[in-house]
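Morning, I've got a small favour to ask if you have a moment. I've dropped the whole record in just underneath, so have a look.
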Amino acid sequence: MARSVLQRYKIVAPPVDVSMIAEAEGLEVKLVETWPENVSGLLLRESRLLGLNARHSHTRRRFSLAHELGHWFLRHDFPWHDQQISLDEPPDAANDEQKSIEGEADEFGGEILAPRDMLKMALKGTRDPQVLANQFAISQEAMWVRLLRHKLA
């Protein structure tokens, strides 16, 4: 799905502009100053609103936005969607049943921010994880996850 989104928006080089994708999908992105550290992002599908923790680093917010876009494009639904949830009152953390959905959104987020094909091309120029992380505008930790997941390191 991440690859089809990149094709749809004609994105062929890093860094991927996930904010543009959210905007093109009609999603409003808001930074929330009041969330605790353990809340990174929240998608309110019906109101087309996506919240991100303003206290997190820029690269962390990019990943959170990509993760929430994963929920959007993969049409994930959560039991709390029937409850009164707002950016001021986010839901509790995911239970075990929801963790596989969160894993799918994480995989989508990683693939949209550092797509395998773009990463393979970038590796022809450098094998330095920090240089690659800067090129893709993600954290060095996220870059290591991508490299190791695809056995490119």
The longest helix spans residues 96-113. The chain is about 50% helix and 10% strand.
